[in-house]
Backbone:
């Protein structure tokens, strides 16, 4: 069996509406995902039957578990079990560029990449619908990391419907000095909203129209995130990053998902360079990176 390498993108949330938690503790979501040009690569090599291992290199690699908690290992095991792959085993190597605990679905990208890589490695040829079902069991963001592009997410975010939009967008992503665990952000949101009536989450029609028309300025006006207030309560320093982006003329400045990563929409690539330079010069973030979106989901690159 020849080794297989799969590349999977990070995600940003262009809109994130969060409902009140249900009896199982999960929050219903209405979100619009976009895959952007920051990637993790997962290489799968055949191993002895029943042996599954993972090695991690790259950004924040020391923060990624390499035991059975690793989402890519869980994805490989699940694929082997569900399809009764005889003699299945895999040694995985994850090379990370997507930050850990940055609200950009780094672990989910790794899981999606592992599903695609092991499917090809073992010759399973599972239907796309089957991979999506496994992905949804692994985590709310994993199905989108398979699909990529731009998509609406509902349920817990795992029910993904592609969006037919126009054009490409120039973004700047600012990485904070340290991560912010997603459960903490949701817990803070619940604290902030305690005693209030919380409406059912919906995706703004204004945002969908902007995507259909490929209008960056209208898209900037429509970006929204219910988790932003909670992230700012937990990390007040993020407000300074948003202020610097605003001062640099970003069309929109937003906490991405559960944070602490922040997202800035630029007019074009040249403007994105100016915004990234302003953020870097101000010393308010660990790194400011220009990216584009949408990009494809997890795919074999060799």
Residues:
């Amino acid at each position: 069996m020849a080794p297989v390498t799969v590349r999977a993108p990070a995600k940003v949330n262009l809109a994130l509406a969060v409902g009140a938690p249900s009896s199982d503790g999960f929050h219903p979501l209405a979100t619009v995902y976009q895959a952007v040009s920051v990637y993790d690569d997962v290489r799968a090599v055949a191993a002895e039957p029943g042996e599954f291992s993972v090695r991690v290199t790259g950004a924040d690699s020391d923060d990624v578990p390499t035991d059975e908690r690793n989402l890519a290992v869980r994805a490989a095991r699940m694929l082997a079990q569900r399809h009764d792959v005889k003699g299945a085993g895999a040694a995985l190597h994850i090379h990370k560029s997507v930050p850990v605990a940055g609200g950009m679905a780094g672990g989910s990208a790794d899981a999606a990449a592992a599903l695609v890589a092991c499917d090809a490695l073992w010759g399973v040829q599972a239907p796309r619908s089957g991979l999506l079902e496994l992905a949804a069991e692994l985590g709310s963001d994993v199905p989108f990391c398979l699909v990529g592009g731009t998509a609406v997410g509902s349920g817990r975010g795992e029910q993904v419907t592609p969006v037919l939009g126009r054009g490409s967008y120039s973004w700047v992503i600012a990485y904070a000095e340290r991560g912010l665990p997603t459960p903490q952000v949701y817990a803070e949101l619940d604290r902030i909203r305690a005693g209030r009536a919380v409406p059912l989450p919906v995706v703004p029609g204004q945002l969908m129209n902007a995507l259909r028309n490929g209008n960056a300025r209208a898209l900037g006006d429509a970006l929204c995130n219910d988790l932003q207030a909670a992230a700012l309560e937990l990390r007040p320093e993020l407000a300074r990053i948003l202020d610097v982006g605003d001062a640099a003329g970003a069309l929109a400045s937003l906490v991405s998902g559960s944070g602490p990563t922040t997202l800035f929409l630029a007019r074009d690539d040249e403007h994105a360079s100016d915004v990234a330079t302003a953020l870097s010069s101000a010393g308010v973030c660990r790194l400011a990176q220009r990216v584009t979106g949408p990009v494809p989901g997890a795919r074999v690159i060799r």
Remarks:
- The longest helix spans residues 106-122.
- The mean pLDDT is 94.
- DSSP finds ten helices and twelve strands in the chain.
- The two ends are 13 Å apart (CA to CA).
